[in-house]
Amino acid sequence: MPRKVAIVEDDFDQRENYADALQQSGYEVATYANRRDALAGMRKEMPDLAILDIMLEDEMDGGFDLCRDLRALSPTLPIIFLTARDTDIDRVSGLRLDAWDYLTKPLNMQFLSVRINSLFRIVDSLGQTANDESKSDTLVIDELEIDADSMSIRWQGKELSLTLTEFWLIESMARHPGHVKTYENMMQITRQSYVERNTINGYIRRIRNKFKEIDPDFKNIQTVFGVGYKWNSGE
Amino acid sequence: MRANFSIRTKLMLVALLLLLIPWMSYLYVRDMKSFLLSGQESALALTARAVATVLHDRPELFVDEQINLQDEEEEEDEEDGDNQEGSASSSANEAVEGQQQNGLKLEIDEEQELTSADKQNGSSSRQAGNEISAVPLPNYINLNGDLSDWGGLLSNPGATQLAEAPLSGLTVNHRLGYHGRFIYALFEVSDDTVILRSPGFLRVDAADHIRLTLQDPGQAPRRFTLIARENGRMSIYLMDEDWRYPITGDPNYDLAAEFKTTDRGYNVELRVPRFLLSSDTRIQMVVADVDNPDTLDVAALLPITPQTDADDATRVLVESPEIGKILTALNRDDTRIWVLDQSQGVQAVVGKIATEGFSYQRDRPIHRGDTLQHTLNLARYYYNTTLAYVFQFIIDTSASKLDEFEDSFDARNDKIIARALQGEISNDRRPSIDQQGTILMSAHPVYLGDSILGAVIVEQSTNQLLQQQQRLLENVISVTLLVLLTVVAAILLFASRLTVRIRRLRNATDNAIDRDGRIVAAKLSAEAKSRDEIGDLSRSVSNMLGRLSQYTSYLRGLPDTLAHEVSNPLNVVNSSLHNLSQEHPSIAGSKYLDRATNGVNRIGSILQNLTEAANLEQAMQRETREVFDLVELIERYVDGYSISNPTQKFDVVIHAQPLMIEAAPDYIAQVLDKLVDNAIDFAAPDTAIVFKVQKLNEYAQIDVINFGSSLPEGMSERIFEPLVSLGRKNAQKLRLGMGLYIVKLIASFHGGDVIARNLSGADGVIFSFSLPIYHRDFADAQ
After folding, report:
1. What is the ipTM of this complex?
2. Mind telling me how many Å the CA of B607 is from chain A's nearest CA?
């Protein structure tokens, strides 16, 4: 049974193109042009994943409001925000909206599919771990535990609340401790169409902050000025 | 070159216009003075006319002093065959002239005397001085001991003055009269023992005698002793101060006296020529009584003339009694009225010319303990002295004007008297004796039918007027000075405040926009609440800044907004291309699809670049700063860069280490990225990029130097503006000119700066990026 993806986007062309691309990838797609329709439609039939544009028709932050309403309906629904600016990501964090990922426009359709696939994998793996404890594809580096299936990361035994992109970035660094991940590498890893160094810097800043919430002395992600970042394993 | 006048200076210059007030007042007072003078003059002329009117056609009032000199001489000769007398009379001609001259000089001397007397006594009344009156005699007196020619005077008790010395039993009846050129005195002395001068005894005080003192103002008194050996002419000697010895042995022949014993004592008739006795001359007469024939001591000195504590001398008034009576009614303190007869003989004088209390000179105050009071006094003294100089200057000019057309007081007097006696009414002015005022004179003839009987001359000093003028000017000057000082102080204060306010506003305005033209403060706090024009200016500048900053933020947001708006259609194109290739796998490999995708990607990059600056500005607010060593960062940066770009060479020159700064290292690294990118773009192939790190003042400065090209003229500032770039080598490579703009943003955000300039020696460009050194931790790091 195909998974159902809801797309909320006020621009008809974009909305239909997304829908076409996702249908092509085998998903069942429901499209909405504004917040009220989307909420009403999704109340009737909950999708498996929602893609929300932030600005909806005349509502500047319509996407945020919708996200809040959806969270109330389903705390585990994977939500992807479409943002126009990097800074929107900070705003989402600031609003403590529990989004699973962000994508900056313009979108690359292939990357979108990849993301959606990954997110469904996470959903699936979360469902499995509840049943099967033994199975584990876990990478442990010192105090860092990376669960590749559920795409979750623990630091000092505590789980970090990460978006998909953040997971990918940490994982790529941690897989080769001491090796520099260049900006160019990391831009690839984010699987977004247009990424620049400041975008990466922003991701790393947010990642560090999340680690520091658990461990204020966290210093394992080191900046290699002019090149990129690397994971320092211990001392 | 134009001089720069501050508002303060200008206002001060304007305030100087206040100095016109005293000048204006001076002009006004001067005009007023001449107006008042002419008023005073006409008043004087009226007085003269009034007096003259009273005297018209009344010749009987005029005492006949028309002297036929010839007659007089004959008369003199007749009455007295004495040769000595003859010589005395022969000098009568001179005496007449002398007397006249004295008469005319009289008031002048009197002024002096009065002035000095007033200063001593503080009294302004002429009556304070001792006076005795000489009454007119009907005829000349023969000095022969016969009292019959004294006429009615003998029986007139009012004319007789009695002096008594009770101790020695001495009584003197004394009368004073005049006729013609002579003043006569009669002493009727009752003395129980009359002692005559013994022959061969040379002393002149060893017998009954009379002492006569004549004193002209300012001269030593002349003392005469009148003494007799027998009845008949007395010997008269000029004496020394002690009345003991004659100064010369020769008798005096100007005076003449007759001695005659009587039953009760003796009589003395004394004749004094009037030239010896000007109206200003003061006289003292004392009868000395010697009673003891053995010792010949002076037993008593009986003053005949009135004596007071202050003044033991007496003035003899010689005047026409009738006219005098008439004029007494007109007696005023500030006016003197002369009545002259046809021969310019003085018939009567009343009044005086007020000259008192008019002096510029003040005494320098003496220190008397109270320092504050003393200082005040001293200040007042210097102030007044300074004023006095000013006034003297003003007055002197007017006095010298008078001098210009008149050289002698007498000549002027004579002139108007002569005119009046010819029937003309004339006015004149002359400077007063003290040179500080002017005496106004008005002369009017006295008529007898068609002929002229005499003249009335009225004199008045302008001193009072002058004094008032003085006081007025003094007040005006003082008030003006005070006003000037106050106004200047106020203006200074006001101007200073204004200047301060304007400067504050200027500084605030200057600081509202930084060196790169960005608006730092959209609203000025300086003077924003003032209600005047400066406040208006401040508010309108604020208003302007507000609108400007709105516009600027619109402009700054424009690329971002544009990018945002373009991104949606771009997204459509992008996704459509993707869907197209999915839908038609046959065209998936088409080169046109590739190119279209490539173009879309480039547009995407451009949008990314355009939004980068805006994104960065927002992101920087969130970035946490840390303190780190800039040198270490640069070394690590160069190491890292060399790893990713092994072909690029770097020279790193460190002049100071460590250089602790507080910044977000990512952004500093980004600055280095942009600068290095830029340097590599413009460096000649195979040249090294030079990093120079040094400490300049309190700033850490990084110089990034590339060789091989230089900045075009005028680009070194503009290059940091958004969307300004220096052309490109590769058309495919994006060059929006945002990179250096971002460097500038980051520099400003960290309180630093970045400038670009061409190398002076070689072909190359140097970018200097400076950041403030972090202090507290810098000390810790040491």
Report:
1. 0.84
2. 9
